[in-house]
Amino acid sequence: MPIQYLIALFIGLPIVELVLLIKVDRWIGFGPTVLLVVLTGVVGASMVRQQGIALLFKIRQEMQRGNTPAPQMIDGIMLLIAGAFLITPGLITDTVGFALLIPFVRKAIRGWIRKKLEEKVRNSHIEIHVRSPNDL
Predict the structure, then answer these.
(1) What is the DSSP string of 60-128?
(2) Do 44 and 97 form a contact (C-beta atoms < 8 A)?
(3) Quick one: DSSP state of residue 132?
(4) 3-class secondary-structure state, position 130
(5) What does the longest C-alpha to C-alpha distance in the chain come to?
(6) Residue pair 75/110 in contact by the 8 Å Cβ criterion
(7) Do residues 100 and 78 lie in contact, with contact meaning Cβ atoms separated by under 8 Å?
(8) C-alpha span between 25 and 46 (Å, rounded)
(9) Is the dihedral of CA 31, 33, 37, 39 positive or negative?
(10) Domain locations along the chain
(11) What is the DSSP letter of 134?
(12) pLDDT, tens digit, for every residue of 86-130?
């Protein structure tokens, strides 16, 4: 991921979130805005926990059957991202976090990731960088 995207993400997103929170504050007031941010964090964290536990059971079942739980592992990564977004104060991050809790959204993202990886394999554009412990 190019550095410009990271700069936009880590600097631009909080600014946009702050502007949006100020607008919501003007619309519904300070107290309800704070309550909304806290409530989405608490509800979101609870949902991530619940789905994460269910996902661990699915991973265990797939492994007991002798299958590689690759889709479940990718879902696990998306649940971790969802959790990070949901505990981050802001409405945009909460929206993305809640979207990642919807199974068909995760399935669509998995499909997109698979398609991109297959394209890169077909075009021979995959690079693998291996570092030894001494490089760290």
Answers:
(1) HHHHHTT---HHHHHHHHHHHHHHHHHHSSSHHHHHHHHHTTSHHHHHHHHHHHHHHHHHHHHTT----
(2) yes
(3) -
(4) coil
(5) 56
(6) yes
(7) yes
(8) 25
(9) positive
(10) 3-135
(11) G
(12) 988 899 999 999 999 999 999 999 999 889 888 877 887 666 666
